[in-house]
Amino acid sequence: MAAIFSHLTSLRSPDAASFSSLSSSGIQSSRFSGVFAPSPITFPATRQRVSCQATSPATSPPSSVNVNASQKDFLHISDFDKSTLLNILDRAKEVKQLIKSGERTYLPFKGKTMAMIFAKPSMRTRVSFETGFYLLGGHAIYLGPDDIQMGKREETRDIARVLSRYNDIIMARVFAHQDILDLAKYATVPVINGLTDYNHPCQIMADALTIIEHVGHLEGTKVVYIGDGNNIVHSWLLLASVIPFHFICACPKGFEPDEETVKKAQGAGVSKIEITNDPKEAVRGADVVYSDVWASMGQKEEAAQRRQVFQGFQVDEELMKIAGQKAYFMHCLPAERGVEVTNGVVEAPNSIVFPQAENRMHAQNAVMLHVMGL
């Protein structure tokens, strides 16, 4: 907070106001298994199941990714070490407090522009990025599905190089994970993954910030995800490969997360990670019970069949009672009330769904500040 207080006291000009950049340092010791030495993680070609309105039957998964290849971009949670991630989350808390205080002279993005590529409709991602960038002085440009038609009307590599010459940063919300990798490969400015079929790192950073605010800490907590083993689960697994906590994914048989990602996360030896088909046993003693839609965009034709398969995986009042009085409920939204979660659970006092949604903006602001070196 020192940098913020210094800014407020000295009333420096907006151009001069900035936080000190974060530095990447070594991984801290793990609560579960000592020191984590990061190694490249490959994301195999496998069946993709996606949440938050992201899926498309026409997409192809990534071939392989060295997650330590570049620090200019924010593509996967596991691209960064524990110290860096926690520093970004601390930064998010500071900037959130500044914005909510009504202070409007901290404008690190003044004179900067962000290109926002959307291959699909979005509410939270668009509004949180556009508003956050504006509140910190910048201008965001929305490029919808019909504006670019990435990979169809124009090659991704050409789009990346052209937008880099106009803008200071690129955010993309796409279907195929390979698209975000190609953007980052050819762009000369930072690229942020706003969601792909494979993962959703910005959502999980917001979730981590929310858990820290409400539980008091992330390390050592028990987070239980109930539902489809989709891109949200993949990002939780990647976070669990860096920061130690207990993560359980309870899903129906045949809907488990990508096996290779599970193995890599477990093999990191940082967190306790479990995949189970028993939601009632999974939630006992949970700090957080987390849910997501059972059928996302592109899967609506499967909705009826999925409702049959996912019987017993609804987060209802009975399941939250098993979890215990201290358990919070989280959902990345949009929610289908009465399907994967009851209305009563969403509206309960221990539901932190809407603080979680707000934190998308604050966590993303911190991510953008980090990758832009501000």
From TrEMBL:
Entry's EC annotation: 2.1.3.3
Transmembrane regions listed in the UniProt entry: none
Domain Aspartate/ornithine carbamoyltransferase Asp/Orn-binding: 219-370
GO biological process: citrulline biosynthetic process; L-arginine biosynthetic process via ornithine
GO CC aspect terms: chloroplast
Keyword Protein transport on entry: no
Principal location listed in the UniProt entry: plastid
Domain Aspartate/ornithine carbamoyltransferase carbamoyl-P binding: residue ranges: 72-213
Keywords: Amino-acid biosynthesis, Arginine biosynthesis, Chloroplast, Plastid, Transferase, Transit peptide
MF GO annotations: amino acid binding; ornithine carbamoyltransferase activity
SUPFAM superfamilies registered for this protein in UniProt: Aspartate/ornithine carbamoyltransferase
Location of this chain's protein in the cell: Plastid, Chloroplast
Catalyzed chemical reaction(s): carbamoyl phosphate + L-ornithine = L-citrulline + phosphate + H(+)
PANTHER family tied to this protein: ORNITHINE CARBAMOYLTRANSFERASE, MITOCHONDRIAL, ORNITHINE TRANSCARBAMYLASE, MITOCHONDRIAL
HAMAP family per UniProt: OTCase
Family: Belongs to the aspartate/ornithine carbamoyltransferase superfamily. OTCase family.
Listed name of the protein: ornithine carbamoyltransferase
UniProt organism field: Solanum verrucosum
